Amino acid sequence: MSFNPLKIGELTAKIPIIQGGMGVGVSLHRLAGAVAKKGGIGILSTAQIGYQRSDFEQDTMRENLLAIKEQFEKAKRIAKNGIIGFNVMVAQFGYERIIKCCTEVGADVIISGAGLPVNLPELVRGSKIKIAPILSSSKGTKVLLKTWAKRYHRTADFVVIEGPLAGGHLGFKYEEIKTATDNMDEEVKRIVEITYEYANLFNIDIPVIFAGGVYTKGDIKHYLSLGCSGVQMATRFVGTVECDAPEDFKNRYLNASINDVEIIKSPVGMPGRAIKNHFSSMIKTQKIPIKKCRNCLSTKLCNRKNIPFCISEALLNAVTHHTEDALLFAGANVYRVNEITTVKDIINELMQ
Ligand SMILES: Cc1cc2nc3c(=O)[nH]c(=O)nc-3n(C[C@H](O)[C@H](O)[C@H](O)COP(=O)(O)O)c2cc1C
User: Fold this and answer.
1) Which of 98, 86, 139 is nearest to 116 (CA)?
2) Which residue's CA is the closest to the ligand 1 atom numbered 16?
3) What is the residue with the minimal CA distance to atom 17 of ligand 1?
4) 201 Cα: distance to centroid of ligand 1 (angstroms)
5) Phi, psi (degrees; rounded to nearest 5) at 230
6) Start-end ranges of CATH 3.20.20.70 in the chain?
């Protein structure tokens, strides 16, 4: 079986695979460029994207905005006619400026989650950039698409559904994760139905993309059979030479067993899936003093005095310091990553 290309308006990805944005520093130009070169959609994570720039500590926002342009251009150089976009978290400080910057550099798509991207259409108005919310429930889908239709007379160019097996922040309450895992297929069908309504209303197609625990060709077929047009994969792409994370980070993936994954409580106010280590056990019992605030989250979300640890610091440490003292986000399937291969080999295996 060969898969249909993924069409998003006038954009066509030869293969229906989006590489999920991974912050901090896990999906930058090398990974996104390699996936786009193979016909998928490569996504750069904007979370502290400028961390490798020399003035990052002095002027974090400015360096992050400069890095958006730099990383995008480098990814486009790898994948000449490939589709490259950005993942921007609603919770990120300076969300509006970041979205505008991604639009100005000429990105093809923006995928936005970790909160409902209610004002995203307003921020990209007048551009051709394609926008997608990340949603985890039919309720959230209804609310968002209804709001966009009412306020902005438009709908989503595509929708990413993120299920409970994903890595990083999850759109479920801690106590909902088990039930959501059992019921996700039904929820996917309901979300697809809702998107049909809005697709008809605006006379466009709204491809639905499933993310969270997608690993094999069989998984892709499964989600296509539920009405999706493609999948978003992240964890599997960490096990590649192109993944932008350092070797130490990738080795943690290679060594993780099925029991090495746990759900942590993030200061963002959402649970997150991560690999167990010294850091994840420490945050259960103590507050980790914040060395430096880089204003990564909107002030509404982050109460600097009371948070148990700094999410930026914890994720930055994963790519700059020792991986025992860092938060190592990973999907539930991390135990299946047993070798470092290439993006080309993974995509060939999935598409053959
Ligand atoms: C290391 C890592 C970092 C992530 N960072 C982000 C992020 O910054 N923003 C976001 O929306 N999703 C993030 N995610 C979620 C992925 O984009 C993706 O949707 C999800 O992990 C898909 O599930 P999979 O990893 O099982 O393929 C992250 C996932 C991982 C594994």
Assistant:
1) 139
2) 20
3) 20
4) 31
5) -175, 180
6) 6-246+337-351
174 half-sphere exposure, CB direction, 13 A CA radius:
9
Q: What type of residue sits at position 137?
A: S
Q: For the domain made up of 6-246+337-351, give the CATH fold.
A: TIM Barrel (3.20.20)
Taking the centre of ligand 1 as the mean of its atom positions, its distance from the CA of residue 122, in whole angstroms, is: 25
Beta bridge partners, 320, equal none
Q: Which residue ranges have their beta carbon within 6 Å of ligand 1?
A: 20-23, 26, 45, 47, 87, 89, 113-114, 134, 162, 165-168, 211-214, 232-235, 329-331, 333
Query: How do strand 130-135 and strand 109-113 relate by DSSP bridges?
Result: parallel
Lowest mean pLDDT among 127-131, 154-158, 285-289: 285-289
Alpha-carbon distances, residue 324 vs 163, 178, 262, 319 (angstroms):
27, 27, 15, 11
State which H helix or E strand residue 127 sits in. Answer: none
Which two structure tokens, joined as six digits, stand for 8?
């998003």
Q: What digits encode the pLDDT tens for the residues 276-329?
A: 999 999 999 998 888 888 888 877 778 777 888 999 999 999 999 889 999 999
How far apart are the CA of 168 and the centre of ligand 1, in A?
Answer: 5
Cα distances from 86 to residues 51, 132, 149, 302, in angstroms, run 16, 11, 23, 23
Structure tokens given for 89: 């978290």
